[in-house]
Amino acid sequence: MQPQKATVRPIQKFASAVSKCSAESAAYGKCILADYNSVHKDLCAKEFMRLKDCYLLAVKKA
Which superkingdom (predicted)? Predict the structure, then answer.
């Protein structure tokens, strides 16, 4: 009989990643909020890419 492997649900990985990227989340949110009446494609692309990279790195480490 083999011991059961602990399973981590995808939402748990995402929640952990989000908690590690608060600075990037705040920067992206501020960018969107600064001109939310005229949001268009690539308005905050630089901030979004930093947030995305942070999430991907945090999920990979989990």
Answer: Eukaryota
How many CB atoms sit inside 10 A of residue 57's CB?
Answer: 13
Question: For the segment 27-48, what is each residue's pLDDT rounded down to a tens digit?
Answer: 999 999 998 899 889 999 999 9
Structure tokens of 41? 């494609």
Q: Residues 1-36, buried b or exposed e (16+ Cβ, 10 A)?
A: eeeeeeeeeeeebeeebbebbeebbebbeebeeeee
pTM listed for this prediction: 0.76
